UniProtKB/TrEMBL annotation:
<dbReference type="InterPro" id="IPR052171">
    <property type="entry name" value="NHEJ_LigD"/>
</dbReference>
<feature type="domain" description="DNA ligase D polymerase">
    <location>
        <begin position="28"/>
        <end position="279"/>
    </location>
</feature>
<keyword id="KW-0436">Ligase</keyword>
<dbReference type="GO" id="GO:0003910">
    <property type="term" value="F:DNA ligase (ATP) activity"/>
</dbReference>
<protein>
    <submittedName>
        <fullName>Non-homologous end-joining DNA ligase</fullName>
        <ecNumber>6.5.1.1</ecNumber>
    </submittedName>
</protein>
<dbReference type="InterPro" id="IPR033649">
    <property type="entry name" value="MtLigD_Pol-like"/>
</dbReference>
<dbReference type="InterPro" id="IPR014145">
    <property type="entry name" value="LigD_pol_dom"/>
</dbReference>
<dbReference type="Pfam" id="PF21686">
    <property type="entry name" value="LigD_Prim-Pol"/>
</dbReference>
Length: 293
């Protein structure tokens, strides 16, 4: 029998709590759910009002991994959903608005991915993102050098940047924006990626061709497109171990000399949150948003 628990007055089924999802560390589904419950206070504001795409891995990262954008079958009627415009026609997607919805979604075993816009203004970007993806033998250490360049370049345009680990190999550099069309956000982000390659030709590539990436950092500007999504802050990733997409300080970025310095596991986040709080909280403050030149 599937256990039923009550979360904020909602009945939520939580299944297979002893199932090991991350064999490398023995991290179980119950621990996944505990992680999301204990980080909900900082995670939920970054999910709220953004249609969520799920990268699901119900049997762990070594099992079947699949992407879900539409409302999954069996979604409770109390979970908020909304119609989202798409070029191929509108779709209905989930909005994770509260703790009960978060725990229901976490029970599906998922990464949380969101667009750079909110449901009330689809296609109007209120966030800017650069996904820094290292091509071996480059690592997150090289990503840090590129991130610092982007921070300085954004600051020159009056835009304050923040940074988090991707939870995989690289970094995400983010900034809050006074809402602007996704097309304009893409145009601006691509121009900065091109400029980064011009300034750091030994280190940066802005083109998506994989054969160009060896030993360099691909500055992916395309995730600013309205149809694209990025791993949300604090989401677990479908990796060998329970790595988290964790906000980090610029001091940690500028002093990084070893990839392990910027690898954070679920068990470490509670201590980091006590020390730093939500380092991405300024992204939630419209008054601190930057304006594209």
């Amino acid at each position: 029998m599937t256990p039923i628990t009550e979360v904020e007055g909602r009945r939520v089924a939580l299944s297979n709590l002893d199932k090991v999802l991350y064999p490398a560390t023995g991290f179980t589904k119950g621990e996944v759910l505990h992680y999301y419950a204990t980080t909900a206070e900082v995670l939920l504001p970054h999910l709220r009002d953004r249609p969520v795409s799920f990268l699901r891995y119900p049997d762990g990262p070594e099992g079947q991994v699949f992407f879900t954008k539409n409302v999954p079958p069996g979604t409770p009627d109390w979970v908020t959903t909304a119609e989202v415009p798409r070029s191929e026609g509108p779709a209905r997607m989930v909005l994770v608005q509260d703790l009960a919805s978060l725990m229901w979604a976490a029970n599906l075993v998922t990464e949380f991915h969101t667009p750079q816009w909110v449901i009330g203004a689809p296609g109007l970007a209120d966030r800017l993102v650069f996904d820094l993806d290292p091509g071996a033998p480059a690592t997150v250490v090289e990503c840090c050098e590129v991130a610092v360049w982007l921070r300085e370049r954004l600051a020159a345009d009056g835009i304050e940047a923040y940074v988090k680990t991707s939870g995989a190999k690289g970094l995400h550099v983010l900034a809050g924006l006074t809402p602007v069309s996704s097309e304009r956000a893409v145009e601006y982000a691509k121009a900065l990626a091109v400029a980064a390659e011009a300034d750091l030709p030994h280190l940066v590539v802005h083109r998506m061709t994989r054969s160009l990436r060896a030993g360099k950092v691909f500055v992916d500007w395309s995730q600013n497109a309205a149809r694209k999504t990025t791993a949300a802050p604090y989401t677990l990733r479908a990796r060998a171990a329970e790595c988290v997409s964790a906000p980090v300080t610029w001091a940690e970025v500028s002093t990084c000399r070893d990839p392990d310095q910027l690898t954070f596991m679920a068990r470490e986040l509670e201590v980091r949150l006590l020390e730093y709080g939500d380092l991405l909280e300024p992204l939630l403050d419209a008054g601190r948003a930057g304006t594209l030149p």
